[in-house]
Design brief:
Radius of gyration: 23 Å
Bound molecules: flavin-adenine dinucleotide
Strand order of the largest sheet: 3-2-1-4-5
Number of domains: 3
Helix content: 40-55%
Length: about 425
């Protein structure tokens, strides 16, 4: 009886999972496998991942299967499990980062050596990364033409979850780490939770997105971590959104995600090397000013609020990511890689293409067609947090200041106790 190993990666769901759906339809036996790789375990995303894996295991068990869990190198373990179960094929979802592609390359080589079929399936993005190319280039460098081409591209159909998953007999499923009793971050992991949030968002949040998405005290869809781990399918999310009126602004943001994935696919060094080298830039390195930025003690309230939100919640509003990013790179002139590393450590949605693509955009080395633009933090704060609700929430030292001073505590006639948390030079001010 034919057996297929389905190697899960950043596609931790049973709905709209092309490899799992086809394997369950075609093979007598299917081994859903996840390999915990200590080499890439990110401390602050660990709780979300473990919650997600428990949820996936329970969904697969409900369908008669299980999530088989191993530890080590995913390519080696997948081949080992294929050997144990006499599987003839290993299928997986394709990914874009250079790390993921090196792993895919190793797995492809190991499969060739053992005469196993190896196949990669779409699903991490709505439109596969290399599917759209402009005339005369291997990828889109500017968003608007990409958006036009992306919007006109037919999408693959959304797939239902498999009804039954038939596991080979006698296979040890392996242990999953228990979820932490005090998990980090503002959202809990798992496809079940992701789908609940997606449905609620499409029903109740989406319609007001266009008018409110830059209000920093409010919440946007908060689906980014679910998209990062694949608890939610981006294709299904776009389909659901497109069935509603006024979804264009939201779908456009999801297109930005695909946009950066195709940039990262074509330019694998996106995380380390300037996408558009700029001879006029001489970055400062990591030092006291960067430390103050990371801790949220720069003395600029909107910047400090954002950096503290990140530390507390593992998430930050997109507008504030832009403000703190512009402040680090354009005002302090600190290398964008310092920002990338800090965000990558703390964000629950920390994701190579989106994190690095956006940082390079903000720094003026990436896909922004106006690389010299600078966001004035004070003006941004007055516009997107007009009554100071956001700043008061994350910088309680400023909670009792009136609205007209909350973004400019230095104008207060009476000194504000405890803020800025330590005396800083004027160069850190807005
Ligand atoms: C400096 C910087 C770093 C960032 N790092 C990341 C990161 O590591 N991971 C990440 O997922 N997003 C990143 N973003 C993009 C964006 O801030 C987040 O996707 C968004 O805030 C997540 O919240 P949400 O799901 O509520 O977004 P919503 O506003 O509800 O948007 C829906 C979805 O669209 C996508 N999206 C929205 N804005 C962007 C964008 N600018 N670029 C790419 N995709 C977008 C995301 O998948 C998001 O979940 C970064 C932005 C900046 C400026």
């Amino acid at each position: 009886m034919d057996t297929i190993v389905v190697l899960f990666n950043r596609d931790l769901r049973v709905h709209d999972h092309p490899a799992l759906a086809e394997a369950c339809a075609r093979a007598g036996r299917v081994v859903p496998l996840f390999v915990l790789d200590p080499a890439i375990e990110a401390r602050h995303r660990r709780d979300f991942l473990h919650e997600t894996l428990h949820d996936l295991r329970s969904s697969l068990r409900t369908r008669g299967g299980d999530l088989v869990v191993r530890r080590g190198d995913p390519a080696e373990e997948a081949v080992r499990v294929a050997g144990e179960t006499s599987a003839t094929r290993i299928w997986a979802g394709g990914d874009v980062s250079s790390l993921a592609r090196r792993r895919e390359g190793r797995l492809a080589g190991a499969c060739r050596a053992r005469r196993l079929e190896f196949r990669l399936f779409p699903g991490v993005t709505v439109v596969p990364p290399a599917a759209l190319t402009p005339s005369g280039g291997d990828h889109y460098r500017v968003f608007t033409p990409y958006w036009r081409a992306w919007s006109a591209t037919p999408r693959r159909p959304v797939l239902g979850p498999p009804e039954r998953v038939r596991l080979p007999d006698g296979l040890d499923p392996g242990d999953l780490p228990e979820p932490s009793s005090e998990p980090f971050g503002v959202v809990r992991g798992g496809e079940t939770e992701g789908r609940r949030r997606m449905a609620e968002w499409v029903d109740a949040g989406l319609a007001r997105y266009a008018g409110t998405r830059d209000h920093v005290a409010g919440r946007t869809s908060m689906l980014s971590a679910y998209l990062h781990f694949g608890c939610v399918s981006p294709t299904e999310l776009v389909e659901l959104a497109c069935a509603r009126p006024d979804a264009e602004d939201y779908v456009r943001q999801l297109c930005w995600r695909d946009f950066y994935y195709q940039v990262a696919y074509a330019f694998p060094d996106l995380g380390r090397r300037d996408y558009r080298p700029r001879a006029d830039l001489d970055w400062a390195g990591d030092g006291d000013a960067a430390a103050a930025w990371r801790e949220g003690v720069t003395g600029v309230p909107i910047v400090d609020a954002g950096m503290r939100q990140l530390r507390r919640e593992g998430w930050m509003h997109n507008r504030v990511r832009l403000i703190v990013g512009s402040y680090l790179t354009k005002r302090l002139r600190i290398d964008w890689r310092v920002g990338v590393d800090h965000f990558a450590e703390l964000l629950l949605d920390g994701d190579m293409p989106n994190n690095c693509g956006n940082w390079q955009w903000v720094a003026g080395t990436g896909n922004d067609t106006r690389p010299y633009r600078t966001l004035n933090p004070l003006r941004q704060a007055r516009r997107f947090d007009p009554d100071g609700e956001y700043v008061r929430r994350y910088v309680p030292e400023l909670a009792s200041l009136p609205d007209d001073l909350v973004h400019e505590p230095w104008r207060s006639p009476a000194p504000v106790r405890g803020y800025p948390p330590r005396p800083l030079g004027g160069e850190l001010r807005a």
